[in-house]
Specification:
Layout (H helix, E strand, L loop, with lengths): L7 E4 L5 H12 L3 E4 L4 H7 L5 E2 L7 H15 L4 E4 L14 H29 L2 E5 L12 H21 L5 E7 L2 E2 L2 H4 L16 E2 H14 L3 E4 L3 H10 L1 H8 L2
Parallel strand pairs: 1-2, 1-4, 2-3, 4-5, 5-6, 6-9, 7-8
Amino acid sequence: MQSLKEKVVIITGASEGIGAHLAAALRGRGAKLALNARNAEKLAAAAAASDILIPGDITRHEVQSALIEKTAAQWGRIDVLINNAGRGSYYNSSTTRLDEARAVFELNFFTPLALAQAAGPYLRETRGTLVNVSSIAGLISLPWLPVYSASKFALTAITSAQRAELRGDGVHVMGVFPGYVDTDFQRNAAGSPPQRIPGGKTVSITATQCAEAIVRGIERRRNAVVTPRAGWLLILANRLFPGLVEARLGM
């Protein structure tokens, strides 16, 4: 198990939810943090004095460049990149505006890809870790989150490709697949969730629990983290009985 003490870690979407709890967990392990989020005030509230803060819209090239360059300039290395920032969209596939769909993909897929490319040389030098926070919706298409699911499926696919590509350079690539996490995801997502979502929040976990699972995955250099672990049962059921799972999710 690798120690994260003194490791330089970049986290996007770090002002609240999973990202803020990741920052707290990693800070507690002695990591050096570079944090990004759109809201500068919320980001500052979630940060410590020792953290580097690069607020701004991470889908913008200049913010991406600043995040990588300022981190490397401050500490001379990058050990871990956590692509956590994302956005939800509850509009159905028949009515989603294309500009909305493109915006979802821009943050959930193209931004993690761009940051991985920019941080790649540093991660190769340190034989570090690339973490892409996908979703259970990136393994099982959720009909009430169709464009979000599509973007997370794309992120899951590129994560597998990055793992194969970077393995020879000693870079650890990990996909994260949270299920229901008790955050403000629904409030922050575009559109409105259906009144009844199968599975509901009766099986939700806290953002703290999710963050701890991710950090343990980094420490153990796992390929995938599914949290809560009960999500593996749904994934297995979907592989064995896809028609049944699709019918149940469509209820």
